[in-house]
Amino acid sequence: MTKVKAILGNFKRYWFLMTQLIGRDFKVKYKRSVLGILWSLLNPILMMTVMAVVFSQMFKFKVDGINYLVYLMTGIIMFNYFSQASNMAMTSVVENFTLINKVYIPKYIFPVAKCLFIGIDFLLTLIPWLAIIGLSYFGLGEYTCHFNVYFLMLPYVFLCMFLFTVGMGLLLSCLSVFLRDIWHIYGIVLTLWNYLTPVFYSIEILPTKLQFLMHFNPLYQFLNAARTIVLYGKCPSLKTLGILGFIGVGMLIIGSLVFRKKQDKFIYYV
Fold it and tell me: Is the pTM value of this prediction over 0.85?
């Protein structure tokens, strides 16, 4: 409990620094961009459009009984958040080595700030996502999605995914200090992870054994919970909600423990 209070105290003490880091990332990302932050709204729509044409028209992918466009966009925005946040968190400690060498700063501030920065982008992508759901009432897609009371469970699903992402970010940022090859390896892992996660396809097309193994994919659990609410108008089971919490908190604990154990040695490697 004392350690938790110390960590929360550090967040309060260094909150100004964290906001500056997040603000700097926004400035760098949208520097000299004509549309600026509007790209956060346009990007998921454009990606959904391209993937919808490729997979639904060319490869004839579809999911029976539900709106494929909403199914696809849900997978895109959630996987993209994890991919971008964990990737940026991985390099955050090394990229800020000048600050680490000059003054004392809790080093976990850097990967957490990256996850929060991409998290703000993620919240912006929810605007076009909700718009696509609303447009399904007017004939966008073959089936209609319905806003329902279970949408109130979505913040819990997203929070669990955020905790999981922060945990992965802490673990990866720690590993990358000692092994820079992880930057290249993780890119390959993310590509493989993308294809092993039903972002654009349904697990129903997979053999039974692979469908069973898919349940061990954490990102599948997050996507499936969100789609259960949005596409089927149902609340995920208590078991599913418990699994999401276990995955999120469990990964955060693992990442935090590894990071805390190794952080004192960072200065010798960065």
Answer: yes
